[in-house]
Amino acid sequence: MGQAALFAVPAAEREAPGEGAPRPQADGLTEPAHVQAAPDPSAGAAAARPAFAPNEEQARAITTAARRTAVIAGPGTGKTGTLVARIAHLVEACGADPAAITAVTFTNLAAAQLRERLAARLGAAAARMTIGTFHAICLRLLERRPLLDQEEAAALLGSCLSAAGGERDVRRAAEAVSRVRGGGAGTEAERALAAAYEAALAARGARDLDGLLLDALALPGPPPPCFTHLLVDEFQDVNAVQRRLVRKWSAGSESLFVIGDPDQSIYGFRGASARCFSELAEDAPLDTLPLTQNYRSTPEILGAALAVIKNNPGGARSLRAARADGAPVRLVYTDGPLSEGIWIAKEIARLAGGTQMHTAVATPAARPFSDMAVLCRTRRQLARIEECLRHDGIPCVVSGRDDALSDGAVRGALALFRFLLAPQDAAALAACLTETCAVPAQKAAALQADVQARLAAGEAPPAALAAAGCPPALASDAEQFCALLPHEAPRRLLERYAALPGRVTQAHREAFARVLDMAVFHRRMEDFLRALALGEEADLRRAAGKAYRSGAVQLMTLHASKGLEFPVVFLAGLQQGALPSAQDGGADASEEERRLFFVGMTRAQDELILTAPEPPSPFLDELPAAVARERARVRLPDSRQLRLF
């Protein structure tokens, strides 16, 4: 069965309207499976989107005959519409075979949206295109091997650090190892750690996300025909290895079309660079075209954002607002993070038509909760605001990876389902034995070898586990859930698992409950596991409550918000040491932090509310005088009530 089964398209999905079954292409690459993504945070705006009528700048980009094109698309300038129209132009006007077109997106959610819009424009032809993230496309190009998600990879790297006697932070070590494996500089200790980590991966017959890219880069021979026309979205955030993949895939292609915005380059810690467009121009002649008309934000919002970003190299930007004047941007100072969270909760209730908040600001027509988003620099900041919203009964959905995914009981449960869906996944079986059953490593290795041999001989997983002498509870779980997997949603499966005696102890229940609230966004366990393995921040979501409510406030980090838009945005946590980050990274890091602020501000369509706990961010000094400044009036709870937060 193997990993191919885990990443195949389920039968129910193959039969969904508008989705064709995966089909082999001439190059042997399978047409990409549709990924069941969480509901689109800006789905309301998408549903009301008018037919795309390109302006002059967009039309030039859509119809360019240049072999290599870079489109510099500022926020809200119709980047996705231009990308869709460019692909349609290749098919309708240039006669391109849809199977010869590959579009690379930054998230699985963006890939699903792009495929949906192309299907509406081109019908069944869209199903023949290759559309996905770098990691998803590389996975389809390579032979199947177990894929470690971020939490499993971190655990494996942690064991390598321990074996080396290191006491370094795993996150920092992961950044160093990724840099070294990608061909970057590293100390002798970092190179040794990278080698040990790769050896540990090889011993498990597994890959991590970096390995997907590197192995695809090492594939021999010319790129397959699906890359005849290559389009790359969010190009400003590709890292060095992804840049090399673009170079490899576009070698000999008929067209390369990249689109993005250097002012929205916010992944320097992953090796991305705002200079990527100029570096692309150094490879070969490049036709560079701008998109400068902003259709998303009011002039007040765009003006405030431009006043900030002009302090980065390049000076004043040329973006222009197409919309009529709107409400002024508000900057609200608070005494601290708790005051900020309470004020945001009360203000959201007021905007939604509640009467809890008495303020001099006139109450507008009531807005649905789904119109509103709260963005922060870090997940820790979001956690405080989530507590305040939940305390006031405001439904919310949190985007991004959750620390609960690193919990041992959670990892053990997910490993069981990964093993049942892909029995050749040795890493999943190892996690079942060590995390769930507490089998010592040496004995686990022997059991694993026995089970894998029995599976290779054709035994079913439950029988192979029992015959190899694995703990009876593991064999029993395998038998029970093998029968349930095809029929039940992932949340229900995980609830059944947690109800089994001894599987999830009290110490792990909170983490498990958070993962249940992530699983509610997926219809099948393979969808959920695929999102965990390949998903970016925006692809993973958690409902703040047992059931998902479509009318919910969206909570996400600034990184997760990239590419999204909302009528009302609260940009919170604008505190010294948070944005910009307290970590000293020099001028380049300061510029990236300013770009992150710019990204957050330009998510807003109608209203932008900035909140700043003391001491405020120095970036606020760059805002124009037209921004309305005020001090939050918040009554803090007494000591007994504080325990509720």
From TrEMBL:
It catalyses: Couples ATP hydrolysis with the unwinding of duplex DNA by translocating in the 3'-5' direction; ATP + H2O = ADP + phosphate + H(+). Its EC number is 5.6.2.4. The keyword Transcription regulation does not apply. Residues 299-563 form the UvrD-like helicase C-terminal domain. CDD domains: DEXQc_UvrD (cd17932), SF1_C_UvrD (cd18807). The keyword Acetylation does not apply. Residues 37-52 have a biased composition (Low complexity). Residues 52-298 form the UvrD-like helicase ATP-binding domain. This is DNA 3'-5' helicase. It comes from Candidatus Aphodomorpha intestinavium.
